[in-house]
TrEMBL record:
Name of the protein this chain belongs to: ARSI Arylsulfatase
Sulfatase N-terminal domain mapped to chain residues: 50-361
GO molecular function terms listed in the Swiss-Prot or TrEMBL record: metal ion binding; sulfuric ester hydrolase activity
Positions of the UniProt region annotated as Disordered: 515-544
Entry keyword annotation includes Cell membrane: no
PROSITE patterns registered for this protein in UniProt: SULFATASE_1, SULFATASE_2
Length: 573
């Protein structure tokens, strides 16, 4: 793997570059921007519910935004964040489906049964149908609701689709990973299909259009056709910057000096996405929405370091419970914020957007029980203390148990072989296998020697199943205090026990062969009917469907010509 090429470099050498110094956290990079005193005057009164634009990016690393010291150009995001409120104590989940489910429901994974992995294309699984979603609550409050981009919350039944879960319109992909031009997605060798949908229909005619631009253009069309006098919610879930690493040629050219090819393509995708956000912001102003709007920007998980992303100087990467996997980029931009142009260190989690946005919309939360999120608007807008004091990052009973974990190591109250993580106040506890624990410098440094963290990981992690960090004092997770503070470890283990008692069974059914796109006209989409019950979720195909399979002989031919046509139309690398 690429990171292991960094063998032999010293910690002192990295410090000489300033990468591990505390200067990175000094106010010069993340604190309040000096402004005119009048900037802190009260904003216009909420005379009507605000328009809400929620922008979610995919696999964007913590380091990969200009105001975190990145070499990637993100002028639009930098400006919006500088003029709004940067969230520098903001947490998400380490992979796609969990973050999206918690955003849409306001509940931890353990309370929706989605605490293990992601929802895969061939699984008869989706966001539980008994959950009242964020867009449904906004619809109740009189909002027009629209989704553009990546769903990744299941689609095996039509009842699972975005248009059945609270969105008036939808343009995007249902699975988690598609080609940016052809919209093809392969879930294993020979299991490929087209995945771009308009509402509940396959959008064959949109093939060949780069998804980042397509989605931004769709937002503009929605705004142009709607009245700014009526409240609107648009959820923009960009595919960018998830693999495959694809970008229009002109954006890659800007980063031609980058030695690392993956990083070069990734940087181009980030900048392209930044420009798409610029176009969305411009449309808000052009069509009269901006003055009464709230723009929320969030990443969905940490960056994938072997695909160009960087979470430096945080530890870990996408798919891990180290800070590099769960600490996200987040900011809020709005003329309605009372205290603008500042950095907030209030503790915020992705589940908090549900109650926060419903409250902003003047919706009714009294009939919604069991939310794990909090209304954090006073903390964001006015600088008040966050109502949140702890975060359950997750408890995953199905993940590979740590070899050296045991109930004994958990004081007889918790099996430390189980993958789990929790933050309470300034303390963070991890048990089981938290995932790869490297600190990986930005990949622009192609020939950077040194992999001092490998030795640290080998000596510090191989025979461990419990870690404790003071995240406030040690945001890079360099100093494990589990042996020095067993009292804190025990306290946090008790919190895990508490949460585990409220968990529902994991929903992770076996894949079903009926989901193959060849049986569905060459596209990914719902394959089970309303009458199909639990046997679908158990992975068994209903008998009545077994004799209906016909191989789609033209699917491969259709796919070939679609790809050929796209490559002739597109100028890309």
């Amino acid at each position: 793997m690429a990171v292991y090429a960094l063998t032999g470099f010293s910690l002192i050498s990295l410090l000489s570059f300033g990468y591990l110094s505390w200067d990175w956290m000094k106010p010069s990079l993340v604190a309040d921007v000096a402004t005119d005193p009048m900037e802190k005057s009260l904003p216009p009164t909420f005379t009507r519910p605000p328009h809400i634009i929620f922008i979610l990016t995919d696999d964007q690393g913590y380091h990969d935004i200009g105001y975190h010291g990145s070499d990637i150009q993100t002028p639009t995001l930098d400006r919006l964040a500088a003029e709004g409120v940067k969230l520098e104590n903001y947490y998400i989940q380490p992979i796609c489906t969990p973050s999206r489910s918690q955003l849409i429901t306001g509940r931890y994974q353990i309370h929706t049964g989605l605490q293990h992995s992601i929802i895969r294309p061939r699984q008869p699984n989706c966001l539980p149908l008994d959950q009242v979603t964020l867009p449904q609550k906004l619809q109740e409050a009189g909002y027009s609701t629209h989704m553009v981009g990546k769903w990744h919350l299941g689609f095996y039944k039509k009842e699972c689709l975005p248009t059945r879960r609270g969105f008036d319109t939808f343009l995007g992909s249902l699975t988690g990973n598609v080609d940016y031009y052809t919209y093809d997605n392969c879930d294993g060798p020979g299991v490929c299909g087209y995945d771009l949908h308009e509402g509940e229909d396959v959008a064959w005619d949109q093939s060949g259009k780069y998804s980042t631009f397509l989605y931004a253009q769709r937002v503009g069309k929605i705004l142009a056709s709607h009245s700014p006098k009526e409240p609107i919610f648009i959820y923009v879930a960009f595919q960018a910057v998830h693999t495959p690493l694809q970008s229009p040629k002109e954006y890659i050219y800007r980063y031609r000096s980058m030695g690392n090819v993956a990083r070069r393509k990734y940087a181009a995708m980030v900048t392209c996405m930044d420009e798409a956000v610029k176009n969305i912001t411009w449309a808000l102003k052009k069509y009269g929405y901006y003055d009464n709007s709230v723009i929320v920007f969030s990443t969905d998980n940490g960056g994938q370091t072997f695909s160009g992303g960087s979470n430096w100087p945080l530890r870990g990467r996408k798919g891990t419970y180290w800070e590099g996997g769960v600490r996200g980029i987040g900011f809020v931009h709005s003329p309605l914020i009372k205290r603008k142009r500042r950095t907030s260190w209030a503790l915020v989690h992705i589940t908090d957007w549900y109650p926060t946005l419903v409250s902003l919309a003047r919706g009714n939360l009294s009939n919604v029980q069991g939310l794990d999120g909090y209304d954090v608007w006073p903390a964001i807008s006015e600088g008040k203390e966050s109502p949140r004091t702890e975060i359950l990052h997750n408890i995953d009973p199905l993940y590979n148990h740590a070899k050296y974990g045991s109930l004994e190591d958990g004081f007889g109250i918790w099996n430390t072989a189980v993958q789990a993580s929790i933050r309470v106040g300034e303390w963070k506890l991890l048990t089981g296998d938290p995932g790869y624990s490297d600190w990986i410098p930005p990949q622009t440094l192609t020939n950077f020697p040194g992999s001092w963290w490998n030795l640290e990981r080998l000596t510090d992690g191989l025979r461990k199943s419990v870690w404790l960090f003071n995240i406030t004092a040690d945001p890079y997770e360099r100093y494990d205090l589990s042996e020095q503070r067993p009292d804190v470890v025990r306290t946090l283990l008790m919190r895990l026990v508490h949460y585990n008692r409220t968990a529902i069974p994991v929903r992770y059914p076996a894949e079903n062969p009926r989901a193959h796109p060849d049986f569905n006209g060459g596209a990914w989409g719902p394959w089970a009917s309303e009458d199909d019950g639990e046997e679908w979720e158990s992975g068994r195909e209903p008998l009545k469907s077994r004799n209906k399979k016909k191989k789609c002989k033209i699917c491969k031919l259709r796919s070939f010509f679609r790809k050929l046509n796209t490559r002739l139309m597109s100028n890309r690398i």
